[in-house]
Specification:
The chain is mainly β. The protein has strands at residues 4-7, 10-13, 18-24, 33-39, 46-51, 58-60, 68-73, 78-83, 92-100, 103-106, 110-115. Strands 2, 4, 5, 6, 9, 10 and 11 form a seven-stranded mixed sheet that branches. A hairpin with a 4-residue loop joins β7 (68-73) and β8 (78-83). It is globular, with a radius of gyration of 13 Å.
């Protein structure tokens, strides 16, 4: 079982930056692939970014490439999402995800609001 707790959301003006953190419980964090997803009001949850268990591969949605960076610190059981050049369309609840094999876990989400 893995528990995920996101933090770092808030209100920011367009062009600003935020850094989201996701703290994971459990001793096997380093074996999980980690990702960030987001859900805007009235829309489906969508993929934002992912990083695999060995930190070698990262993947981004086209809408955030060049602006967002995902990273992880395995000794700290934490994954981060650095968000730069934020746009109003980035406004959403951001969710942390951990998965491996048939296991899939979600955090409770953190709100990011970007004002124009």
């Amino acid at each position: 079982q893995v528990q995920l707790v996101e933090s770092g959301g808030g209100l920011v003006q367009a062009g600003g930056s935020l850094r989201l953190s996701c703290a994971a419980s459990g001793r096997t964090f380093s074996s999980y692939h980690m990702g960030w997803f987001r859900q805007a009001p009235g829309k489906e949850r969508e993929f934002v970014a992912a990083i695999n268990w060995n930190l070698i591969n990262t993947n981004y949605a086209d809408s955030v490439k060049g602006r967002f960076t995902i990273s992880r610190d395995n000794p700290k059981n934490t994954v981060y999402l650095q968000m730069n050049s934020l746009k109003p369309e980035d406004t959403a609840v951001y969710y942390c995800n951990a998965h491996r094999s048939s296991e899939n876990y979600w955090g409770q989400g953190t709100q990011v609001t970007v004002s124009s």
